[in-house]
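2024-03-11 09:14:02 DEBUG pipeline.ingest accepted 1 chain
2024-03-11 09:14:02 DEBUG pipeline.ingest length=564
2024-03-11 09:14:03 DEBUG pipeline.predict start
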Amino acid sequence: MSMDPMKPFLDSAVGYVSSMLREAYGIEDTFRIEPGGEIADFAFPCFQFSRRAGVSPQEMADRLAQGAEAAGGMLTVSARGGYLNMSASPHKLSVAAVGTVLQMQREYGRADRPPGERMLVEHTSINPTGPMHIGRTRNAVIGDTLVRSLRQAGVEVASEYYVNDVGKQVVVLYWGLTKFFDGEIGGKPDHELVRHYVRANELIEKDESAAAEVRDLQQKLESGDTALLAGTRKAAEMVLDGIKESLAHLNITHDRFVFESDLIKDGRVKGVIERLKKLPEASEDKGAWYLPFNGEEDRFYFTRSDGTSLYTTRDIAYHLDKLSRAGRLVDVLGEDQKLGMKFLVRTLELLGEAKRIDFLFHSFVSLAEGKMSTRHGVGVLVDDVISEAKSRAKVEVLKRRPDMNEGDASSIAGMVGVGAVRYNIARLQAEKKLVFKWEEALNFEGSSAPFIQYSHARACSILEKAGSWEKGEISYDEDNELRLARQLALFPSVLSDIVRTFAVHKVAAYAQQTAAEFNQFYRIVPVLRAPPGRLGSRLALVDASRIVLENALCCLGIDAPRTM
């Protein structure tokens, strides 16, 4: 049995088109089959060969459709607008889909991958100077959803967080702690220590002598001052502990944390600078070294005039390290990083490191009142959003289940609240701007995580009420059965598309549509009161729906409660 229930039908479509082109027009050539969208499962655009055959695209489509019996009952075939449209037999697809899901369970969605293909996704990488606000959370949710979706698709993937403990912002944090911090942390460290960071920024903006102290520290740090590197790293780690706690509340973890200071201490940054200086394109201007791009129109400076490195120089060292550990890299970044990444890629090409690097850029999150800023202490903290979400979710849970005990209500509210926050971010295309609004982030109606979670819980409830049951030989003929089974069959294709495009919002849309199809099926088709001989098939469809909803929710980093 194929791990993708659609694949045998796609193979049949390819074979059908190939045989018909050869029989009708004597054409034996490679061709493409496209997704059919709402009209069909697959489509062959006849524009590829109609001119060669001396007919119009529609005439070719009509001729190819006349051999429908050659598809062996696997496909229904029609011609429209110059396209040959082909759809999987609803009855055969429904049986294949349910059977595959029940066989693969949590592995459903996985595809065969080339051996040794390893991906590394860097995401979040927030400067460790204060707590996460909702604007920074978008990167983390998109990145984690991508990693989870890749794993569900069978890709070997690791996630990393690049800790900037050398940049100016961390130097300001360190300087502020030396001036104002008494060593006592009474609460969550990122919330406690950011006060000193904000206060330090305010003082630096007013006092030139304070600004000079920070500049001096920055130069010493980038020159490799061992004691100072240890100090800034400790400051960064204290704040990072609080950020990790916030990420854990969102069900986000990283496989590895890489500290920028390590790249300086072990000489990797220095090694990169020496390699760059030896490039024939490298030039010097008043002690500062750069690479010219587009003639001299663009300059990428990789050292300052005092010989210290810049952020992108250290980022090159980090990417060289990543390339040594993975065949394909994905960086999840804000859209303001596009120019810097262009210089990075061009430089890596000059160094002969042209392995594939992909970028998933996302637009910013803003408040209705304006932009967020950690430095000025402006923003909605994700810890506050999570707390509010859980509180509102608990009210909703108890409203629907007043008999539920306090512990169970709190547990479900935690799943529902976090799910609401994550889904609100993941559902939107990365390149679209997101304006944070409480009423949207904590929406429990309509297109939302709670709707998907409730559908999963409903499937669990049906199966629990059914008790033990035998699947037997399954078959489906009701329209709502066939529609739901087809929706389940599409899950591997959705994941394969994400592997190619990184468009993680598609798994959110898929989960929502699957929940909607399941609820429509449940409303119209009796399950527990099914007519004789139909109970096993319908319970199998419910169980398959439960599995796919859980798998999709897992990709989204959202818990799948068994009761709500």
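2024-03-11 09:14:41 DEBUG pipeline.report The chain has 21 helices and 14 strands.
2024-03-11 09:14:41 DEBUG pipeline.predict end
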